[in-house]
Amino acid sequence: MSQPGIDDVLKAIRAFIRERDWEQFHSPENLAKSISIEAGELLELYQWGQPERAEDVEDELADVLTYCFQLADKLGVDPAEIMLRKLAKSAAKYPVEKARGRSTRYDELPD
Q1: pTM listed for this prediction
Q2: Most-buried pick from 73, 77, 78, 103 (CB within 10 A)?
Q3: What's CA 97's distance to the chain center, in Å?
Q4: Which tens digit of pLDDT belongs to each residue from 66-94?
Q5: For residue 16, what are the CA distances in angstroms to 7, 9, 11, 87, 106?
Q6: Burial of 71 (0-12, 13-18, 19+ CB in 10 A)
Q7: Could you tell me the maximum CA-CA distance found in the chain, to the nearest angstrom?
Q8: What is the pLDDT of residues 15-66, one digit of tens each?
């Protein structure tokens, strides 16, 4: 059996929302807020060091990703496509020969 892909995940999310009649609450603004809230909950797990349970991290990460996928779906964009496009932009801003092993901001990389 193959691993589930983005389309499988989106179908499951859509079904979950439809069954509960929650689409009415999922404006782009509300979804963006939810992403931030869930990201804060993920960050909170690391507030005082490493989380005790990997499952807690996975659950919060799943919440963040679910809202991200919902927002992409609501906006009519393909998550894989926009991630690859952004990765290409980042690769141009952070060329390997200048950025490898550095956490320096792109506009502060050596010439």
Answers
A1: 0.89
A2: 73
A3: 28
A4: 999 999 999 999 999 999 999 999 999 99
A5: 14, 11, 9, 30, 40
A6: buried
A7: 55
A8: 999 999 999 999 999 999 999 999 999 999 999 999 999 999 999 999 999 9
